[in-house]
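Lab meeting, item 3. Inverse folding demo.
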């Protein structure tokens, strides 16, 4: 007996409705076993700029810009020259240079306050919920930063992130700075995983390029909306906040 065509259509529609109403299959395991973060995708440096403007009205943005530029240039110069000093000393030297260059009268108390702000940074608004979700998913988390141990641990304490990171790695251990391969290797050694299973999360475009060159899969938290560096090397993905990172790792 032939089944009426209308009945076949109705049956098909009913089956489709059941399938759409059914819960989706559980997501697979995350794409990476561990994630290594630079400090600045997690910690918000903007209060340092606010403090600089408070101390030096009308000069804050210019002072911060030159200070940060020299800060990282000094890490590269000292790594290339083999004349290592730790990142807090580089931060101090670059601040003094920036103040002299701009003819800013940097007094001892002002200098101490600006440097001290690096010892207790708080997280970006999106960071803590994302970190806790990653940790709950079983992904191992680490810092891999040019910050000194005291800078990292001070900001972890200020931000109530104790116990979130399995490893807190300062490139001070290698006595050279990113993007030197020896600095990135610290993450592989600490986590005991192949580099392909460790996602590196960068704040700066040059750091994303350096990590990718080393062999890490790389996510660029491009909070400043900058173009990639003209190095012919590109991160695997990017977003303006850590929320986009969740989708990239499969959560």
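The presenter then showed the designed sequence:
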């Amino acid at each position: 007996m032939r089944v009426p065509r209308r009945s076949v259509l109705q049956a098909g529609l009913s089956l489709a409705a059941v399938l759409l109403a059914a819960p989706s299959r559980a997501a697979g395991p995350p794409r990476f076993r561990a994630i290594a973060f630079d400090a600045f995708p997690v910690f918000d440096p903007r209060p340092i700029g606010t403090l600089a403007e408070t101390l030096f009205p009308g000069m804050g943005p210019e002072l911060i810009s030159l200070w940060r530029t020299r800060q990282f240039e000094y890490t590269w110069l000292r790594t290339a020259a083999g004349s290592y000093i730790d990142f807090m000393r580089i931060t101090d030297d670059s601040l003094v240079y920036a103040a002299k260059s701009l003819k800013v009268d940097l007094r001892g108390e002002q200098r101490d306050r600006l440097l001290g702000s690096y010892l207790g940074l708080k997280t970006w608004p999106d960071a803590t919920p994302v970190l806790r979700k990653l940790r709950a998913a079983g992904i191992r988390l680490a810092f891999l930063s040019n910050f000194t141990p005291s800078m990292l641990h001070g900001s972890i304490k200020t931000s109530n992130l104790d116990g979130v990171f399995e490893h807190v790695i300062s490139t001070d251990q290698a006595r050279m700075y990113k993007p030197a391969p020896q600095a990135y290797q610290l993450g592989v050694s600490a986590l005991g995983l192949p580099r392909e299973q460790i996602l590196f999360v960068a704040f700066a475009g040059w750091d994303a390029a350096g990590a990718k060159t080393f062999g890490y899969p790389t996510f660029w938290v491009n909070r400043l909306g900058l173009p990639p560096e003209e190095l012919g090397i590109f991160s695997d993905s990017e977003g303006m906040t850590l929320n986009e990172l969740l989708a990239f790792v499969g959560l």
